[in-house]
Automatic annotation (TrEMBL):
Organism lineage string: Bacteria, Pseudomonadati, Thermodesulfobacteriota, Desulfovibrionia, Desulfovibrionales
Protein name, as recorded: ABC transporter related protein
Keywords of the record: ATP-binding, Nucleotide-binding, Transport
InterPro entries: AAA+_ATPase, ABC_transporter-like_ATP-bd, ABC_transporter-like_CS, P-loop_NTPase
Pfam families: ABC_tran (PF00005)
Similarity remark: Belongs to the ABC transporter superfamily.
UniProt superkingdom: Bacteria
Length: 329
């Protein structure tokens, strides 16, 4: 820490600024060193804090050291296993599924078939204590009650088709706070990257100055997908029917899987279903079949993607008030 300016320190430890706010001290300017800052504090400021210059300098050094060693990587998941429970009639569910980072699994079936319940079981790390009696194992073991409560918020990120912000912040302020909480080395660069990723997904562009409460549903979901992919430490992502979210859903899934997460997608969209390596077919509240995506289905995906591009172009023409142009083969 000796000889370094606060500007250098902030680039590596932006959360270090919090020390001065908590102590009630004036924020230091970037160009000076901690030694110069504490030496220049007035006797009045020291009296209000109730500490000497040496004590403040020592506390700041310990605070910065603690930040350097703070683990914000989130829980590590090498494998996620789901063991079958029962269907709505109490019949055994023949399921023994193990997933690893980078896996994408689609959940398909009629409305009410049990897809959302399956996602809830994963989120809760079920241990035969939910209506389905399923068991969820992390790294080959069940989590006890204490671990489940402490892990659930950090282990799983959820993305649904209904997502709106209520915070009175601009997009940039929200992302800055999240990036600083993750101890990002270059917060402005991360914020710019997340905004760019969100705009690559959303039909209507947003900026760092856009108020969160002014975002449309599609913009909100695009922002959260970009945030989860770039900043969120949760190793498991649950996605519930984002096909109607007004975003490029194929890019969204590609972005999430590229971040090395386990992704579970409940969907009615054939494009999303075939992008997955496997799909779970639900009926009567249970998994009725596990199907590997075949080479023939991969070929069908190419044709479906081409059709989807034409439909997307037609939708955009309608939005912009243009005549619909649907080229013939």
């Amino acid at each position: 820490m000796s000889g370094r300016t606060f500007g250098d320190i902030w680039r590596e430890l932006p959360a270090g600024r919090d020390f001065f706010g908590v102590q009630g001290l004036p924020p230091p300017v970037d160009a000076i060193t901690p030694e110069a800052y504490f030496a220049a504090l007035t006797e009045t400021a020291l009296a209000e804090v109730g500490l000497s210059r040496e004590e403040l300098a020592e506390r700041f050094a310990r605070f910065a050291e603690a930040l350097e060693h703070l683990d914000v990587s989130g829980p590590r998941v090498d494998s996620l296993a789901i063991r079958g429970g029962t269907d709505k009639r109490g019949r055994p569910e023949a399921l023994d599924l193990t997933l690893t980072p980078g896996d994408v699994v689609a959940l398909v079936g009629p409305t009410g078939a049990g897809k959302s319940r399956f996602l809830a079981d994963v989120e809760w790390l079920a241990d035969a204590d939910t209506p389905t009696r399923r068991r969820v194992l992390l790294n080959g073991a069940t989590a006890d009650a204490t671990a489940r409560l402490s892990l659930s918020g950090r282990l799983v990120a959820q993305l649904s088709q209904n997502m709106h912000f209520v915070m009175d912040l601009a997009v940039g302020e929200f992302l800055t706070a999240h990036a600083e909480s993750r101890l990002a080395a270059d917060v402005p660069a991360v914020v710019a990257e997340v905004v760019a990723l969100a705009n690559d997904l959303a039909g209507e562009p947003l900026s760092a100055e856009t108020p969160l409460t002014a975002l449309s549903g599609g913009q909100s979901r695009a922002l959260m997908i970009a945030d989860v992919a770039r900043l969120c430490a949760s190793p498991i992502v649950l996605v519930d029917e984002i096909e109607n979210a007004g975003i490029d859903r194929c890019k969204a899934i590609s972005l999430l899987t590229g971040s090395g997460k386990i992704v579970l997608v409940a969907t009615h969209d054939p494009l999303l279903a075939l992008l997955a390596t496997r799909r779970l077919v639900f009926a009567a509240g249970a998994v009725a079949a596990v199907i590997e995506t075949s080479p023939a289905e991969r070929e069908a995906l190419t044709a479906l993607a081409a059709m989807d591009e034409k439909l997307a172009a037609a939708r955009e023409d309608l939005r912009r008030g243009r005549p619909v142009r649907f080229p013939k083969e």
